[in-house]
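Hi R.,

Here's the chain you asked about this morning:
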Amino acid sequence: MKKQVRRFAHLLLSLMLLATTLLGLAGPAAADTVVSNGAVTLKGTWSFNCETGVVGSGGDIFWDQLTSTQRQMTPKGSAKIVNLGLVDFNTIDAAQLASYQYATAPIPGNNDSTNQLVDNDVFAVFTNDGDYAKILVVSYGYDLSIQWTTYSPPASTTTPVTGVSP
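And the predicted structure, written out as tokens:
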């Protein structure tokens, strides 16, 4: 009887370990690798580099001023973007960023009711260097006050999903 109880206990422990491994509960996930983060003012008609935090030429996104009221956030080069809306900036991690569907279509930022880049809006960028950035619009205007965090891709991710936004 003792032998059967030990076998059952061993079998039960083996099944629990297997289930834990299969469900990804074997331990804490590796911490996200932050490339850069901070806050900056993105001036109208200027670009922003999500890896370096530099506002100027080049970069991953361009705060385009088409007219005095028509504006848009445009990805540059091979970068892609997606607007996430009014979500909690602090809870978005690298794995979530890697799961979004990115596109080359600009995000409307017009100075009217069609504006999607309102205060507290969050959008994501798949950068020219292959990293993932989350950007919070702190204050909207001709110049945007933004906060950002850029992550290296999670270990299990190589390229973003492209297509329609969430």
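Residues 1-29 form one domain.

Let me know if you need anything else.
M.
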